[in-house]
Amino acid sequence: MKAFAEAAGMAEAPPSLRIGAGRQGARLSADPRRAARLMENAVRLLPTAAPYQLGRSDQQHLIGEFAGLAADAAALALADPGAPAGERAARALRLLETGRAVRSAGPCSPAAT
Q1: What is the spatial distance between Cα 106 and Cα 60, in angstroms, rounded to a whole number?
Q2: Which residues contact 63 (CB under 8 A, 6 or more apart)?
């Protein structure tokens, strides 16, 4: 768990590696607060995971690897005992919106062509 958390925080690592490490670290974490933070950070990296320099099919493949990430992060945000109850729903909604924006307005969407 510690190695995944460290990899997720490495600024020089590729975003896709950091996202995957954050997801795996969250899955292994026994601490719901830490798991929620790891997943939130992973979702925030989603817009950088599929650079515009890649071909369309490569972009789609990269984004597809993270299907369900925002929903999982939102669920953890709602269950985070370290966050005030009134802020949990807003945090979860922001995470869902970030994931939706990557799918609908990202470089892979038909709207971007």
Answers
A1: 10
A2: 46, 49, 50, 102, 103, 106, 108
Could you tell me how far CA 53 lies from the centroid of its own chain? 21
**Tokens standing for residue 86:** 């009134």
DSSP letters along 32-101, please? HHHHHHHHHHHHHHGGGSS-TTS-HHHHHHHHHTTTTHHHHHHHHHHH-TTS-HHHHHHHHHHHHHHHHH
* Helical pair 32-45 and 15-28, crossing angle rounded to 10 deg: 160
pTM to 2 decimal places: 0.83
Q: Domain extents for the chain?
A: 1-48+56-102
| Per-residue pLDDT reduced to its tens digit, 12-63 | 999 999 999 999 999 999 999 999 999 999 999 988 887 777 777 887 888 8
pLDDT in tens, 57-67: 887 888 888 99
